[in-house]
Amino acid sequence: MRWSAARGGGLGLAAMIYVLVDYLRNVSPMWHERLQPLLWSLLALVAITRVPFYRHWNAEFRAAFPFLASIIFMLSALLFEALSVRFVTAVLGLDWHSDTHPLPDTGQWLLLALNEKLPEAVVEILRAHIIGLHHFLMLFIMLAFSVLFDSVKAPGLGLGARYMFTMAIGRLLRAVTFVSTILPSARPWCASARFSIPGHPHHWAQKYYVPYASDANAIRQVIQQDIAYAGTSKYLDDYRPDWGSMSFLIDFLRPTPSEGSSWYNLLKKAGGGCNDLLYSGHMLVAVLTAMAWTEAHGGFSSALIWLLVMHSAQREIRERHHYTVDCIVAIYVGILLWKMTGFVWSAKDRTRDSRLTKLGKIQGRLLQAAKDSDMDEVRELLKDVELGNQESPKKGSSKVMWLFACGTIFFSLTIVVLAFTWTSDG
């Protein structure tokens, strides 16, 4: 019991050490450059040394296919999201981004008011870049790898599959949400600084939006007639590169000559977009990490991670990356989605429920054997219940399992490196 508690506490301690070491990049870059690679290497080495003692490779093997399927699903969702981000950024043109005022946000007002009331030290803590997207990803990766120490219920690939599957659903819902109603950014200069898009609206917007954007009489008439009655005599044309079979994307992405001839490279520049993307993708990742940590591990460290989620939320609002509504919606959507995907992986001990179910089925035989004082029959029935809930050994040689174990660790560590490389800038 003490060893189990120590392992659980060790996971939380390792997580907090990682966050603190990474924060050194803002305090002492020199020490950050020294300590971060050392910490990463130490964590990887400790995980690798636990591989020979891990007893649940059979469960990991069964979870491998759902894990890979979740990766493909998530990558597909991210591609759709990138297309949607570029579309909502480009469809109204660069002039709209520059001229449209941000929406009033009472959350921003509240934080500015608190800056005047709270002690300066507290305000500086709230402003500090303590936690970011890559931190939450790392916290989840540490959680998944902790199955090697029996700190979290196996399989780790099952936990990873649930995390990515839930995130993919959240990303799809997010893309459908922000592409449905285009909202102005809380940072009006963002689009001109990051994107090279035409200044004028796309011809879809020229026909269906521009004539009815500000004229109250025009809006009233389009409501009454329910038809785009204000015809535009001539639409401004867009640049149309030769993308071959992908040319259908031109109307959605609106490329310019300066952005090159590859639609894929254009999508990579989408980033987080420059509209308000309801809801916050960063907060979705943060909440899913906190939910996974709470269910799989629990304890005091889970409360600390939720505090980091709240700190990240107020920073998103304070720095005007998102409106307050984006963070609030991301929090409850993330919680609800995680609750809905328990069928992929769950920390609950299903063997207990299965054992009770099997006991219920043999209850009559068990009672009869007890009445007959047939202890051999009682022992045999109970043995069947116990064996029926044990993990059946995977057929195949131990060499195959060792190859699978090594491949899984190598693949997982590769994903870790790629995740940090691609998200290190937030």
UniProtKB/TrEMBL annotation:
Pfam families: PAP2_C. Residues 273-340 form the Sphingomyelin synthase-like domain. The keyword Magnesium does not apply. It is found in: Membrane. It is a multi-pass membrane protein. Keywords: Lipid metabolism, Membrane, Sphingolipid metabolism, Transferase, Transmembrane, Transmembrane helix. The keyword Repeat does not apply. It comes from the Eukaryota. Belongs to the sphingomyelin synthase family. This is Uncharacterized protein LOC111315720.
